[in-house]
Design brief:
- With 324 residues, the chain is of the alpha/beta class.
- The chain folds into 2 domains: 145 residues, Medium-chain alcohol dehydrogenases, catalytic domain (Quinone Oxidoreductase, Chain A, domain 1); 140 residues, Rossmann fold.
- 30% of the residues lie in helices and 27% in strands.
- The protein has 9 helices and 15 strands.
- The strands form 3 sheets. Strands 3, 4, 5, 6, 7, 14 and 15 form a 7-stranded mixed beta sheet that branches. Strands 10-9-8-11-12-13 form a 6-stranded parallel beta sheet, with helices on both faces.
- Helix 9 links the parallel strand 14 and strand 15.
- Helix 1 packs across helix 9, helix 2 crosses helix 3 and helix 2 crosses helix 8.
- The chain is globular, with a radius of gyration of 20 Å.
- The chain binds NADP nicotinamide-adenine-dinucleotide phosphate.
- GO terms for molecular function: acryloyl-CoA reductase (NADPH) activity.
């Protein structure tokens, strides 16, 4: 038996509770994992609160990420005692996820924990940090360099945003952090932000082309903010679009693309191929400070229910890890 956070649909509403479950209910894959740490991402918060259509099968154990130790394996790459990491692949949406003491995974979805990385550190990074790294790598692949000017990060106090600020600053970029919570400005500066902007400055109707401000951007907000960023991006700049915290619609014009050669780069962390996944995680291990995981809040499975509401209400800062 093991304990899990279980989501059930009752009267078309999501009901979250801790339940004792039997291991034979874990049928997803060929590797059984003891979950040492999981985490709370935006998507998990939407699933737990029922505020987003994330769950595709009921009942569901949420948790799109976990890191832990192999308990049993029928997969040739994994043996008992191996330390592994999983993010994405529809886990916590379509397949039972990591907010539990145990989980079953397809071995092909797992990667070994990068050398030197603890399970707690991996989950302090989580899908949010992984997405920040994929966004940075996409900008670099598009040819963006630190001497081309400031790089904007939106939703800067959030999971993706705060890791993006750190990673960009560490890679030598001048980072401008946009936030709706100016009370965290000193914290963002400590992460490496050179300037702080108000969220409302960007959440406004854009002209087709505005003054050129950004060499590049990592945007976790979407909506009107993304349209504004595009209209302010410099000639040949690039924008990594990875989130929708502010909305899903994108009402823009082709002007930034055809008159300034701006590139809009979509980021999807969920189905990232294994080779790129491993490279991104190894770079995360090298790039983030040794005490990175000490700054994450550690919560229990039970506390994750209330924390999901807090995350969506913008009451959390940075990253949260869950210790089942
Ligand atoms: N593409 C992918 O593979 C991928 C992977 C992970 C996450 N995501 C997406 O990225 C986004 C951020 O995820 P996260 O885990 O970083 O969530 P998070 O920790 O909740 O951060 C989101 C941040 O966005 C800002 N924000 C919140 N509501 C807003 C609003 N109405 N308008 C403008 N800004 C708002 C807040 O930052 P400030 O208070 O500092 O403004 C908040 O901290 C989510 O939409 C998530 O679904 C995508």
């Amino acid at each position: 038996m093991f304990t899990a956070l279980l989501l059930e649909e009752k009267d078309k509403k999501t009901h979250a509770s801790l339940q004792r479950l039997n291991e034979h209910q874990l049928t997803t894959g060929d590797v059984l994992v003891k979950v040492d740490y999981s985490t709370l991402n935006y998507k998990d918060a939407l699933a737990i609160t029922g505020k987003g259509k994330i769950v595709r099968q009921w009942p569901m154990v949420p948790g799109i990420d976990y890191a832990g130790t192999v308990l049993a394996s029928d997969h040739p790459d994994y043996r008992i005692g191996d330390e592994v990491l999983l993010t994405g692949w529809g886990v916590g949406e379509q397949y039972w996820g990591g907010l539990a003491e145990k989980a079953s995974a397809k071995g092909d979805w797992l990667i070994p924990l990068p050398p030197g990385m603890s399970a707690k550190r991996a989950m302090a990074i989580g899908t949010a940090g992984f997405t920040a790294m994929l966004s940075l790598m996409a900008l670099e692949q598009a040819g963006v360099k630190p001497d081309q000017g400031p790089v904007l990060v939106t939703g800067a106090t959030g999971g993706v945003g705060s890791v993006a600020v750190r990673l960009l600053a560490g890679a030598g970029f001048e980072v401008h952090a946009a936030t709706g919570r100016p009370e965290h400005a000193d914290w963002l500066t400590s992460l490496g932000a050179a300037a702080i902007l108000s969220r409302s400055e960007l959440d406004a109707e854009p002209a087709p082309l505005e003054s050129q401000r950004w060499a590049a951007a990592i945007d976790s907000v979407g909506g009107r903010t993304l349209a504004k960023i595009l209209s302010q991006t410099k000639m040949d700049g690039a924008v990594a679009a990875c989130g929708l915290a502010g909305g899903v619609a994108l009402n823009t014009t082709v002007m930034p693309f055809i008159l300034r050669g701006v590139r809009l780069l979509g980021i999807n962390s969920v189905y990232m191929p294994r080779e790129k996944r491993i490279a991104a995680w190894q770079r995360l291990q090298r790039s983030l400070p040794l005490d990175f995981e000490d700054q994450a809040q550690v919560l229990t499975l039970e506390q994750s229910i209330a924390a999901a509401g807090d995350l969506l209400a913008g009451k959390l800062r940075g990253r949260v890890v869950i210790q089942p």
